[in-house]
Amino acid sequence: MTTSQVTVRTLAALTLVVGFAAAARAQPAPVTVEWALKQTPKQPGVNVSTPPAAGCRIAPVLNPDPKAGGKSMGSLLKGPDDKPVRQFVSYDDKSFNIIVYYLDGVEAYREVYMPDPKEPFQFRWVGPNGTKWGLDRNRDGVIDEWAVISPEEVSQEVAAALAANDPKRLAALVVTRENLAGLGLPAADVNQALARASGVPKRLADTAAALKLSDKARWLHVEYGIPSVRPADAFNGREDYTAYKNGTVFVEDGGKGVPFQMGELVQIGRAWKLVDGPAPGAAVQQVNAGGAEAAPVPDEIRTLVEKLNDHDKTGSGLTSPQEIAKFNAVRAGILEEINSQLKDESKKETWIKMLLDSHAAAAEGDKAGNKHLVRIDQFKKAYSAPGANAAIASYAAFRLILAENAVAMANLPPNGQLGPIQDKWRESLEEFVKAYPQSTDAPEALWRLAMAHEHSGAKDGEAKARAAFEALAKGHANTAQGLKAAGALKRYDAEGKPLELVGTVLGTTQPFNAAQPGKVVVLYYWASWSQSLPEDAKKLQSLMKEYEGKGLAVVTVSVDHDPKVAAEAAKKVGLPGTHLFAEGGLDGSALAAAYGILAPPHAFVVGRDGKIVNRKAQVQTLEDDLKKLFSDK
């Protein structure tokens, strides 16, 4: 049995013991509905339910041990539908040692905080969120090692590490001497594998530099061949050496499909570990231990995939729209050849999506009705036929909408009128969500539709936006867009209700509640790239100078991705107040999602009673709000 297998079984036993058989003790603090709902997973990208507070209730978690006498050992938050939402269990009389999060009443994620400082914190994804089980040995909130992780989830972690150029995130996936020794591999094989593993940080840096993924890069798919096995008795070991020699990961970034290679993965207990690390391009071939080839890329398209990889290497450093369009036009041509040569229809979906992405990117550098738009429309119609792949049809339909709008915006009429373009944009999105309500792009389409209506300036714009947000929050509640839609609906109904926003102070781990009882609060969402930031900062400085002594507090929320960039920007423009920050940027930040912020800047004004009085304040006219509030004192 390997070390990782022992670790997993031990941790599982410990979790069970501390969760259900500990002696009853007092809770660290009373749990309220409001407090419980503000608790969010410490790890990013976890889908959990967070219903409105109205109708929620707290129930005790009783210790099932007969010796405990039915005493409480924690609290369970139940939603309006009586389904569990959060669970908090304490067994050390100091803090909550187990926190469980639910999605639609099903356990979806668990955090375990062991009281013994020698034990790691545990973060476990379960149910609809996957299989990952991470260990945080130094207790800094970052996973140091994975006790359980599937090959698919490894590829997702690698994609995220490449997008962020984060060597620490990748390091948690790399095989160790202890892992290999646990298999009983000969010392020479262990040393050879570790020598390869030592090059993983450089491979990450080189691949990140070559791919230049943005922070919006999205994992799409991974393809592995057949795993190879070296039986334990072949090397007098304790466990078989089971490995994927390579694989191809596909991500979508800026409308373009981007492949990269995984390198070798070896199975250690219930976790898959990296031996080599990532490399640019698709994996053309793999050779397993017995010399047999396992190819995720079919034979008939290998030469074309090599051609595509070579072409992709020429794409770095392109800046002008013309250069980018030309690059993608050539790329689309190669992918057209791949599509025509690929014999197995079941393997075409990923390649066709990459093809559609390339056509869409090439179309943006051309005029209305160009050949790339025509080709996307052909795919849409072909795959809309009965029995065809509906996923490709919807993918083509959405890329066609995006590309047509981009072309229209790049070729404005002489009068510069945007009205007809914006009308068509909204109409196209409405048609898409009606035709493909359950497609993977439906949440994004609904989000963009809601944004378009809210920003339209029409009398019924907000009402139509609300309808789109409601459809998104109801039909796609567990997506990032669904969570933000729920926040947008909360924003629409915010006036007269308490401000509910707790975050972390920028550059620290210090929690801060934006609600400041007894003070008038200006809550200002911003980003370093917002053009109005310098002028807004000057106005806020002026307001603080005049009203701080009377009880004004300014709380700002950065929706940047990089906290260092945010801190530098705030310092450069002299932005006053307490600055909050959460990982994820505008699209993924929990603070942005809390009120469904569409774009910075966005401001709220909160009265002394802690209730929001203006949910869509304008920085340059804030003084009108403040004069009224302070004159009412």
Automatic annotation (TrEMBL):
Residues 1-26 form the signal peptide. SUPFAM superfamilies: Thioredoxin-like. Residues 480-633 form the Thioredoxin domain. PANTHER family: PROTEIN DIPZ, THIOL:DISULFIDE INTERCHANGE PROTEIN DSBE. Transmembrane segments: none annotated. It comes from the Bacteria. This is Redoxin domain-containing protein. It comes from Gemmata algarum. The lineage of its organism: Bacteria, Pseudomonadati, Planctomycetota, Planctomycetia, Gemmatales. Keywords: Signal.
